[in-house]
Design a protein that fits this description.
Layout (H helix, E strand, L loop, with lengths): L9 H11 L1 E2 H12 L19 H13 L5 H15 L8 H10 L1 H20 L9 E11 L4 H7 L8 H9 L19 E9 L4 E9 L4 H11 L6 E5 L6 H9 L3 E6 L4 E4 L4 H4 L1 E6 L2 H6 L4 E10 L2 E7 L9 H11 L1 H12 L10 H32 L17 H13 L4 E2 L5 H6 L30 E4 L2 H15 L1
Length: 493
């Protein structure tokens, strides 16, 4: 017969529970230690001799500052000082002016080192979700955040020739008679200063990968080319973009960087082909070789033009992957649907992080505010990803297919709420599994099967918005074929 175990008294249970309790501040410190403190990111960097702060501690201070809920940046800084005091950080910036000066003057140092650290941790924490098949999927897109109307912000972020350029005049001419008559009584106000964000977004882990900031008239294509030139990317990257990222310069930059791309194209793209029926077939090889590049001796880009149906929309996709077995139509549709998540990421930055309108009144400080807001959002999502992937791996034996983990289930709102609650109640104790780590592991969107009519969720079609159209594919003439033959002969020689 089995021997019965002695009953544990209530007093002993309470004693054991009390011994196993942890302080919230201790768990939060472990997270910061994993992210920044133990990494020695800035150990080899020499700073000015009069500086009293340490780069690691100011980086932690800035990260906490980016997570604060306070509307004003100065109020958020005051709350950050109290949290840093409880964490035992003594070598920080003690005034708002010194804090912003440090982040502004040494912005490149913080950005470069923390980006490299973040990307290496993302690859470790992401596990099998880091790659989708053979590729690391990276989407890119741009957006704007409004800035306060100050002299500094208007000088830095407003386009100097706003409304008087060729494109603006052409647009006014084309839209004449549509809505312009209706809006004559309600004339538009002067341009508001806006900061531009060009974001590269990891589509597998669904979090920001790298980004560039600039004034409202920045070129997102130039930002992408700059990132491709100056930064390193994982092996076999696949870059995915919408119809704004077209043209020989950006496509050649991606190929020269050792990556592939998948981009939606329309009537704004002209291509060449050996056959006239490429568009009829819906899947064929084309050349991107503009006349200027042809005359200057630049190589032609051999690409694949594919027609797919995403939802109810027929669209044309252009990719550098020429073999159909490596990238089928079903995979193209699936990848392009995932890319839409970058729009949700921008919504999270503007609504959940509340950076639709920035607060700083000086242009350099405003860029720091936006930069650390994106970084704080990315690091928060990375922490939640690590805990959710770890929880999914621990429960692998008891999970069902319906309960399997998917990075798209991660909730930014619940993640930020958990971090803010932790910082607010940092001196409280909790039982393991119910504190910050447990909340981050459960920070997921609500799953439900909605069977009601969704018609009210969508806006009516915009009558002023023209369809994207089809790319123009021309059959190569005798002169173009001759130049192509001459180019191949020169390469072979």
């Amino acid at each position: 017969m089995s021997r019965k175990l002695p009953k544990v008294s209530k007093g002993l249970k309470k004693q054991r529970a009390k011994q196993s309790q942890q302080k919230t501040i201790e768990v939060f410190w472990k997270l910061l230690n994993w992210l920044i403190i133990s990494s020695q990111l800035f150990s080899e960097i020499e700073l000015h001799g009069n500086i009293k702060w340490k780069a690691e501690e100011v980086a932690v201070q800035a990260l906490i500052w980016s997570w604060m809920e306070a509307k004003n940046v100065t109020d958020a800084f005051d709350e950050t000082l109290e949290i840093c005091a409880d964490l035992g950080l003594k070598n920080i910036a003690n005034t708002y002016a010194s804090f912003m000066n440090a982040l502004t003057r040494y912005n490149a140092m913080f950005s470069d080192n923390l980006r490299n650290r973040f990307q290496s941790l993302a690859e470790q924490a992401g596990g099998k979700y880091f790659r989708t098949g053979r590729w690391v999927l990276i989407g890119f897109d741009g957006s704007r955040a409004t800035a306060p109307r100050t002299v500094s912000n208007e000088a830095a972020f407003c386009a100097p020739n706003y409304g008087n350029g060729k494109r603006a005049k052409y647009g006014k001419k084309k839209s004449k008679g549509l809505r312009r008559k209706r809006n004559e009584q309600n004339k538009s106000t002067p341009q508001a200063p806006q900061a531009w964000v060009t974001l590269m977004w990891h589509m597998g882990l669904r979090l920001p990968w790298t980004w560039r900031l600039g004034p409202s008239n920045s070129s997102e294509r130039d930002h992408v080319k700059e990132m491709l030139k100056k930064e390193e990317f994982p092996e076999n990257p696949m870059f995915c973009g919408d119809a704004g990222f077209v043209g020989y310069p950006i496509w050649s930059s991606i190929i020269n960087a050792g990556g592939d791309f998948l981009v939606r194209v329309g009537a704004n793209v002209k291509l060449l082909s050996h056959h006239a029926d490429v568009q009829k077939q819906g899947d064929g090889i084309v050349l991107c070789w503009p006349k200027g590049r042809m005359d200057s001796g630049d190589p032609p880009l051999r690409l694949r033009l594919v027609q797919v149906k995403v939802g109810k929309t027929e669209m044309w996709m252009l990719t550098s992957v020429l073999v159909r077995k490596q990238l089928s139509k079903k995979q193209i549709v699936r990848i392009y649907k995932i890319r839409w998540g970058i729009e949700v990421e921008f919504r999270g930055l503007k609504q959940t992080i509340d950076k639709h309108k920035l607060r700083c009144r000086k242009s350099q400080r405003l860029l720091v505010e936006l930069d650390w807001s994106i970084r704080g959002m990315a690091i928060a999502e990375l922490i939640a990803t690590r805990e959710q992937v770890s929880a999914a791996d621990n429960q692998k034996t008891i999970r069902t297919n319906n309960d399997s983990y998917d990075p798209k289930d991660r909730s930014l709102a619940k993640t930020i709420r958990a971090l803010r609650k932790c910082l607010k109640n940092r001196n409280k104790t909790f039982v393991p599994g119910t504190g910050l780590i447990g909340q981050l592991a459960k920070a997921k969107v609500q799953r439900y099967n909605n069977k009601t009519d969704k018609r009210a969720r969508y806006r009516p079609k915009n009558p002023d918005k023209k369809p994207l159209g089809e790319p123009e594919v021309q059959k190569m003439n005798a002169e173009q074929r001759k130049k192509l033959k001459t180019f191949h002969q020169s390469v072979a020689a």
